[in-house]
Amino acid sequence: MNFVYAAGISAIMGCGIYLLLSRHTMRILLGVMLLSAGVNLVIFLAGRIGPNPPPIIEAGSYTLSPEAANPLPQALVLTAIVIGFSLVAFASALALQTFRTSGTLDQRELADAEALGSPYESKTEGSR
Amino acid sequence: MNLLLSQALIWPVVLPLATAALCALAWHRPAIQRWISLGGLTLMLAASILLLVQVETEGTQTVAFGSWPIPFGIVFVADRLGAAMALITAVLALAIAVFGLADIRRRQEHAGFHPLYLGMIAGVAGAFLTGDIFNLYVWFEIMLITAMGLLAIDRTRTQLDGTIKYAVLNLLGTLLFLLAVAILYGVTGTLNMADLGRVLSESEPSAALALVAAMFLVAFGIKAGYFPLFFWLPASYHTASIVVSAIFAGLITKVGVYASFRVFTLMFSVDEGGIRELVAVMAAGTMLFGVFGAAVQWDIRRILSFHIVSQIGYMMLGLALATPAAMAGAVFYIVHHIIVKANLFLAAGAIYRATGTYDLRKAGGLMGSHPILALLFAIPALSLAGIPPLSGFWAKYMVIDAAFADSAHWLAGVGLFVGLLTVFSMSKIWVEAFWKTPPLERKHARRVPMAMLVPMAILGLVTLTIGFAPEPFVLYADATATSLLDPKTYIEAVLGPQAGLDLGEQQ
C-alpha cells in the first residue's frame, strides 16, 4: 500500500522537477505546483494512512477511538494547500505581468536584472 | 498590564501584524498609513526590549496558544537568540521605515507598501520566536509572499525579472523545508521543536533522519544564500527599491541562518554524519564566491548583494566549528552584520539620491559635495571590512580566532583572505563614488534629506557602540552560544524540568 503511494508521489515529483528545469516560466510554475502537490501527499503519508474510521469522537465518549485516522496531517495539508495556492496565484500574476511588459516568458531572454552594473558593457542605464 | 507582561513574547509578532491590518484598512490614505506604521514599529521596539529584559532576568519564555498542553499545540519560545533577533528586527524595521519617509514614493504606497512591509516584519519576528517547526514553515511563507510583493512593487522589467528568480528558488526552498518537516513528523510524530530535540537525541541514526538533515541544510541554504545555492540573491536584491533591498539584506537571509542554527543545535548535531565537513566547505565557498562576485560588479547594490553572500559564510563558519567560542562569534557576527549591511544599502540609496545613479562608473565627487554622507558611509563600510575598532573587527576576530583555536587553519585563512577582498570592494565604492571627479559635473549639488541621514546616523552609532564597548555584546553572545550548544535548557524551558533529566549525558 505504502509502496504504491510512494511510487505515485515520486512520479508526480519527478514530473515536477522535470518541468522546473524548463526555460519557460509557465512550465516552471507548473513544476512548482506539481512539487507542492507531491509534498502535500508526503505529509498525508507521514500520518500513516490506512483504512481508518474518520477522527470523530463518538457520542458519549471523550476521546478518539484508538484506530481513528490521524487528524493532524489533514490540518497540516490544509494549511499547506492554502499557502501553496496563494503563492502560485501570485506567481502566475507575476508571470502574466512579465509577459505584458517584456513580451516573452523565455528565461534566456529575461535578463534585465543581470544587465544592471554588468562589468562587460553598460547596455541599460543604472536606473530602476 | 498583567497580560502584557506575562505574554511579552507574542507582542513583537502581534504588533506589526495588527499594524499591517490597520494600514490595509486605511488603503487609500498613504499619509495615515505612514504614521500608523511608524507608531506600530515603535511599539514593537518597546515590546522587543521588554522581551529581551524578561529573557535576561527570568530565562527562556514560553507561550502555548489555545491552552493546548505542550507539545500538542503551537508554542512561541524566546530564548536568548530569539529575543536578540526580535530586538534587532525591531531596531532595523524602525530605522528603515524612517528612511522610507524620504524614499518611498506615492505610487509605491498606493501599491500597498506599508501593509506588505509590516507583514514581512511580522513574518520575520514570527520565524525568530516560534517554537514549532510547522509554524516556522508558515512564517517562512508569510515572509516569502510579502517579500515578493515588495520586490515587484514598481512592476518594472528588471523588478519582474528579479522577482521571478527570487520566487521560483525560494518556493523550491520552502517546499524542501515542508518535505523535510513531513518526513520528520512521520519519523518522530511531533512538530514541537523542543520535543523534537528530546525525541531525536534518543533516536537511532537512520536514513530518513539523514535525509531530513540534508533537506533542512539545503532548504535553509537557499533561504540564507549558502554556496552553491545563493544565485537567486544577487539576481534579485538589487532590482528592488532601496528601502526594500535594505530590509531584505538585513533580515531575510538571516532568518535562514537563524533557522539552520536552531535546527543544527537543537535537533541535529553538526558532529554526526559528516555535516560538519559539508558545512565547512559550504562556508568557505560562500565566503569566497560572494566576494569574487562582488569584485567585478559596478552597480553598488550588486556589489553589496554579493557581499551579503560572502558575509553569510562567516556565520556558517561558526556553525561548522560549533565550539562555544565559534558560535558566540557567529551570533555576534549576525547582530553586527544586520546593522551594517542594512546601513550600507541605505547609504547606496543616499548615494543614488545625491548622484542619480547606482552605477559607480557614473557617480563621483561626493566627498566634496556631501561630506556627512561620506562619513556615514565610511562607518559601515570600514566595519564590514573588519577595520578595528569597529564592530566588524570584533565579529571577524571572534570567528577567526575560534577557527584557529579549533585548528581549522584553512577556514581561518579563507576568512582572512576574504576580509582583504572586502576592503578592496569597499574602497572601490569609496574611490569611485566619493573621491573620483564625477563624469558629469552638476551645477547644484542634490541634497540628501534629513530623513535619510538620521537613520543612517543611528545605525552608525549602534555600530560604533558595538565597536567601542563590545564587552556586553560579547558576554551576551557567549551566553547565547552556551545555551545553544546545550539544548537541555531550551527543552526544559518548554517541556518542563523533568523532560531534560533523561538526556543528561547528551552533548
TrEMBL record, chain A:
The chain crosses the membrane at residues 6-21, 28-46, 75-96. It is a multi-pass membrane protein. GO terms for cellular component: plasma membrane. Keywords: Cell membrane, Membrane, Transmembrane, Transmembrane helix. It is found in: Cell membrane. Pfam families: Oxidored_q2. InterPro entries: CPA3_antiporter_subunitC, NUOK/Mnh_C1-like. The keyword Membrane applies. Belongs to the CPA3 antiporters (TC 2.A.63) subunit C family. This is Multicomponent Na+:H+ antiporter subunit C. It comes from Devosia crocina.
TrEMBL record, chain B:
The chain crosses the membrane at residues 36-55, 84-104, 111-130, 136-154, 166-187, 207-233, 240-259, 279-300, 312-336, 372-395, 407-427, 448-469. It holds the Pfam family Proton_antipo_M. It is found in: Cell membrane; Membrane. This is Multicomponent Na+:H+ antiporter subunit D. The keyword Transmembrane applies. Belongs to the CPA3 antiporters (TC 2.A.63) subunit D family. It comes from the Bacteria. Its main location: membrane. It comes from Devosia crocina. GO terms for molecular function: NADH dehydrogenase (ubiquinone) activity. One of its GO terms (cellular component) is plasma membrane. Residues 132-422 form the NADH:quinone oxidoreductase/Mrp antiporter transmembrane domain.
